[in-house]
Design a protein that fits this description.
The chain is mostly helical. The chain has one domain (13-60). The protein is built from three helices and no strands. The N and C termini lie far apart (39 Å).
Length: 61
């Protein structure tokens, strides 16, 4: 069995609700989607990861 870690995060309420509806179409919970994201991130080579996150961060700031 995979070990789970409980966490608490603050997210945009509208984005959460919209994403939840999209994930529901694929029979996924928000938790499932976050776990998929986290597992995919670790597969990306570090230099590429750094570029991706830098672009995301700059777009959000």
């Amino acid at each position: 069995m995979i070990a789970r870690r409980q966490t608490s995060i603050k997210v945009d309420a509208v984005a959460w609700d919209e994403a939840k509806e999209i994930f529901k179409e694929y029979n996924l919970s928000v938790t499932d989607a976050i776990n998929i994201f986290l597992n995919k991130v670790k597969l990306i080579p570090t230099p590429v990861n750094n570029q991706i996150f830098k672009r995301i961060y700059c777009a959000l700031v």
